[in-house]
């Protein structure tokens, strides 16, 4: 009976895998944090033997998926509202939320010499399109709108907005040159905290509310040792150094 | 009314886009389908494959390449700029161009099949009666291929209404210019406005079913097949 033998083998393999010290956690990661999360997960695996499997996507989509039973243990959100909402609805463990990174907004152009150090290019207005992330969906888009409001430019520039579905698409609009300017994440255009190519203005933090990105342990990961260990690792010095090197602030 | 003015604007824009796209595709697709159905050229395979590409490519691939190609540094973007049209991404015209490419096989393939099914001897008979090729095309081929035209138009229209990945990339989500229904639904879902998403999404589902149901019940070509 080959089928039964297969089952037995499978069961044995599962028992071996489950019995080993190393656990596995499914981590849903906001797309803007994909690169640092990968680096952190690698260091985490080396140090603890646990595996953190990363799934990247948009926070709004993750919310819909988690509410409908998606197999995630941890959420690294792009905002601070979604984890709170999940906790209220019982999909996340109370008391496990914390801010793992604070995003920095940059006014950026793929061409050097376009954006000056004070963002005066916005007032000059010699551009056709300004790419921002959809403020209804993305915290970076909301921060961009707040910045424009603080500068008194929202209404005059609104006709030039093109909205990216998320900050990744917004960056694509600007990087391909289709939008001369874009409000993107520093993490997308920075190497070691400095803007690597094109030209940009790192928007002063007081012009918008901080872009807090929160992490939370999801209900499914309640008893998952690897998931809890990953959240602990995320708050450690090694992970913090990585997060900073990618252009994020820390709370 | 559970639909907001923004929802209605998106619906109107979608209908406008789908109508225009279908019109353009019938004009461009008819000669292309005729050529594909009749030619013995060694290019037939290559052209047919290019026409069918949007069937198998993920819309994001198409959208991404269109964004790059139509952008200021892309070959097509340089062409449109030289022609004084500026660049097409983030404009309604850009959406029409992208939708035409995206829905091309849905219009060309039914037409090609319909043309291929026309017996050669009918066209030869028309020719012996001194009908010019164009004359024969309009008075013999087109009437015989009418079910093909109906299928092509309905599928082209419906497929454009259902398009998402390409318009998201090329459109830039601008209200009343490039924010179509599928993008509006996506925004509602992403913003956790599930009730509003349901109204639009349910409407879309109903629309698509009714259109396809009508096509499969009324069209003699598809009725015979089933």
Structural account:
With 251 residues, chain A is an alpha/beta fold. Chain A has 2 domains: 23-102 and 211-245, Periplasmic binding protein-like II (D-Maltodextrin-Binding Protein, domain 2); 105-202, Periplasmic binding protein-like II (D-Maltodextrin-Binding Protein, domain 2, 3-Layer(aba) Sandwich), CATH 3.40.190.10. In chain A, 41% of the residues lie in helices and 22% in strands. In chain A, the strands form 3 sheets. Chain A has a 5-stranded mixed beta sheet, with helices on both faces. Chain A has a 5-stranded mixed beta sheet with strand order 7-6-8-5-11. In chain A, helix 2 packs antiparallel against helix 11. The longest helix of chain A is centred in the first third of the chain and has 18 residues, at 2-19. The termini of chain A are far apart. Chain B is mostly helical and 226 residues long. Chain B has one domain: Orthogonal Bundle (MetI-like fold), CATH 1.10.3720.10. Chain B is built from 12 helices and no strands. Chain B has helices spanning 5-38, 44-56, 59-70, 75-82, 92-116, 120-128, 133-144, 146-161, 165-171, 181-190, 194-218, 220-225. Chain B is globular. Chain B starts with a helix and ends with a helix. The A-B interface holds A 58, 60-61, 63-64, 85, 128-129, 131, 134, 136-137, 161-165, 169, 172-173, 176-179 and B 64, 67-68, 70-73, 86-87, 89-90, 168-169, 172-174, 186-187, 189-192.
């Amino acid at each position: 009976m080959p089928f039964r033998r297969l089952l037995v083998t499978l069961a044995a393999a599962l028992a071996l895998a489950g019995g080993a010290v190393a656990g596995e956690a499914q981590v849903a990661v906001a797309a803007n944090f994909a690169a640092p999360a990968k680096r952190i997960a690698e260091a985490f695996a080396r140090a603890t033997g646990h595996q953190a499997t990363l799934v990247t996507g948009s926070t709004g989509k993750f919310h819909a998926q988690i509410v409908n039973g998606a197999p995630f243990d941890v959420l690294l959100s792009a905002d601070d509202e979604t984890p709170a909402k999940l906790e209220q609805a019982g999909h996340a463990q109370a008391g496990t939320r914390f801010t793992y990174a604070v995003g920095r907004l940059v006014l950026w152009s793929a061409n050097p010499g376009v954006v000056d150090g004070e963002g005066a290019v916005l007032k000059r207005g010699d551009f056709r399109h300004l790419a921002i992330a959809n403020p209804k969906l993305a915290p970076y888009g909301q921060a961009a709108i707040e910045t424009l409001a603080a500068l008194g430019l929202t209404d005059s520039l609104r006709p030039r907005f093109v909205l990216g579905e998320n900050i990744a698409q917004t960056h694509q609009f600007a990087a391909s040159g289709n939008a001369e300017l874009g409000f993107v994440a520093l993490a997308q255009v920075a190497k070691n905290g400095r803007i690597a190519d094109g030209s940009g203005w790192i928007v002063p933090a007081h012009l918008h509310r901080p872009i807090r990105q929160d992490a939370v342990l999801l209900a499914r990961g309640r008893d998952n040792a690897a998931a809890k260990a990953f959240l602990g690792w995320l708050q450690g010095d090694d992970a913090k150094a990585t997060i900073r090197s990618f252009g994020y602030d820390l709370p | 009314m559970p639909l907001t003015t923004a929802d209605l604007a998106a619906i109107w824009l979608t209908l406008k886009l789908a109508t225009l796209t279908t019109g353009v595709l019938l004009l461009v697709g008819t000669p292309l389908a005729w050529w594909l159905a009749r030619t013995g050229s060694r290019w037939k395979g290559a052209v047919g494959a290019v026409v069918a590409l949007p069937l198998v490519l993920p819309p994001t691939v198409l959208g991404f390449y269109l964004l790059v190609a139509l952008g200021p540094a892309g070959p097509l973007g340089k062409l449109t700029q030289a022609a004084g049209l500026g660049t097409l991404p983030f404009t309604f015209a850009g959406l029409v161009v992208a939708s035409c490419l995206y829905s091309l096989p849905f219009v060309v393939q039914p037409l090609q099949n319909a043309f291929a099914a026309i017996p050669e001897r009918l066209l030869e008979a028309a020719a012996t009666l001194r009908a010019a090729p164009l004359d024969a095309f309009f008075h013999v081929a087109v009437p015989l291929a009418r079910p093909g035209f109906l299928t092509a138009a309905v599928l082209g229209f419906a497929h454009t209404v259902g398009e998402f990945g390409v318009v998201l990339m090329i459109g830039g989500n601008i209200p009343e210019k490039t924010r179509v229904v599928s993008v509006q639904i996506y925004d509602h879902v992403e913003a956790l406005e599930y009730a509003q998403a349901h109204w639009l999404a349910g409407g879309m589902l109903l629309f698509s079913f009714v259109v396809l149901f009508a096509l499969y019940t009324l069209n003699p070509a598809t009725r015979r097949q089933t």
